[in-house]
Amino acid sequence: MTANFVSKTLKNLRQCNGGNATLLVALGMPVLIGGAGLGVDVTQWYMWKRELQFAVDQAAVAGAWARAEADTESTYVERAEQEFAANLSVTDDFNADPDVQLANFAGGTLNSVAVSATATKPLPFTSFLTGKSATIFAFAQASFEEGEDFTSCLIATDPDDEGAVTIGGNAVLTASCGMQALSTDDLSIRVNGNPDVDAGWILSAGGIDEWLKNNTDDVILEYQDGLFDPFADLDPPNPAESQVARTYSCSAQGDTTFADVDTRTVTDYSYWSGPNKNNVEPWEFEEARASSDVSTSEDRVLVQNGTVAGTDIVEEPVWRDLGGTGQNKKWERRDYRRSTTYSNIEVMEGGQAGNVRPGTYANIHIGCDTAFAPGVYNIVGGSLTINGQHEVSGAGVMFVLYEGASIHINGGADINLTAMTASDLMAVGVSPTDANDLAEMLVFEDRDGPGAGNNGHSFNGNAETVLNGKMYFPVSEVFFAGTASVTSMCLMIAANNITITGTTDMQTFCPPDTSEETITASTAATVRLVA
């Protein structure tokens, strides 16, 4: 009976299913609680990670901006730490101090700021199981490029013209002191022909001719912000002595000299390799320029007074840097030799000599040897024209052009003009502030006038043309041809438009060991988050 009871009872229990749900709940409860705890921990971990990552991102960007500016580059660590702390809330109490370092990026050297940080704190569920705290790591890297200031010897100020700077024919422009156009046109700097250009850098608010990209090693920066007219805020001076109405005339008599002139000009090019022009060895250059030998002969030519029969020889070696460094630096040497033979000298008495003082003139058309006394010369409505075989000089002078007045230098004359210094300007009553701003301005066109019209201003100089100073023509076009030289100040031309013709041969705009210092463009610093 007992055995049957036990067997029956077990059979009944086996067939009973009334407690299944309770059993399943009891078995699944640990998994449910664990999943909920893990979900809470993951959410907490993700929130900490997101905040810490955002903080290091902002810290890296702030440090990079500080590093990109010369005035703040030494404070990049402090700026990164400040920005890191400002973007923390939840993790503020348990994060470690960030590590801020300079790092290399994309082949550069120390051109980025890298920031890393950790935060350590127990998570409620996983720390209960493991007995350990959770550590979160975040890293960010921001690269930077410093902004750069540029100077330029040639500046076209028109805001939207095609060909605001136009280089034509076989012009030689190898001064390496910069060229820029403020025009936003897609062809703001244009080439017509096959010139020899080595401007150093070419900047434009618009586009630049593909020819320059394909045929020069110049730095080409197009569609740039930060280009400006450095003289836009200046007004021309008008001291009391310049307001006196005057008339140019040739007074005292002088001599005129004629001669038969035979000229031979030999130009040779040679190529060298070495760290400087005093330590070089010959170099075979496949693209060497051809030498030339040109002779001319003219009878009864007007020459300088005092010329005597015989031969004058001018030798002018010019070294041009072709690039490279150290022993691999390449050079081009141009040896220029001009022999001028004078014969059949004939002196005719009765030439004229000029007498010019500062004041206001309708016209100054040079008709004799002329010396400009120091001061400011106002030309109103007419022109300053220098041509013919005359000697023209002036130290400490400025020509101000009003009411459409123009200036034309057509070669042939022996010209030496030098701009006023700040002390020269203050001596005639210009305030110290204005004098410093206007110093070295040789020609200043009034921007409120109509400009010089279609003929613009022309500079067709020769080897005897010396122009020291800045020339500013904000409402006119300048046609530059021939050549010119400098002895004491850099030559800088800023005009509404600039056309450089095929006869131009400019190989220097500044005296040796000097450079133009007027800032004409400032590119902005750039920063980007790269990791």
Task: Walk me through the structure.
By secondary structure, the chain is an alpha/beta fold. It starts with a helix and ends with a strand. The mean pLDDT is 88. A hairpin with a 6-residue loop joins strand 16 and strand 17. The chain has an 18-stranded parallel sheet that branches. Strands 13, 14, 15, 16 and 17 form a five-stranded antiparallel sheet that branches. It has a four-stranded antiparallel sheet with strand order 1-2-3-32, with helices on one face. The protein has three domains: 145 residues, no CATH class; 271 residues, no CATH class; 95 residues, no CATH class. Helix 2 packs antiparallel against helix 3. Helix content is 19%, strand content 43%.
What would you say about this model in short?
The chain has 531 residues and is an alpha/beta fold. The chain has 7 helices and 32 strands. It has an 18-stranded parallel sheet that branches. Strands 13, 14, 15, 16 and 17 form a 5-stranded antiparallel sheet that branches. It has a 4-stranded antiparallel sheet with strand order 1-2-3-32, covered by helices on one side.
Write a concise keyword list for the protein shown above.
7 helices; 531 residues; 5-stranded antiparallel sheet; single chain; alpha/beta; 3 domains
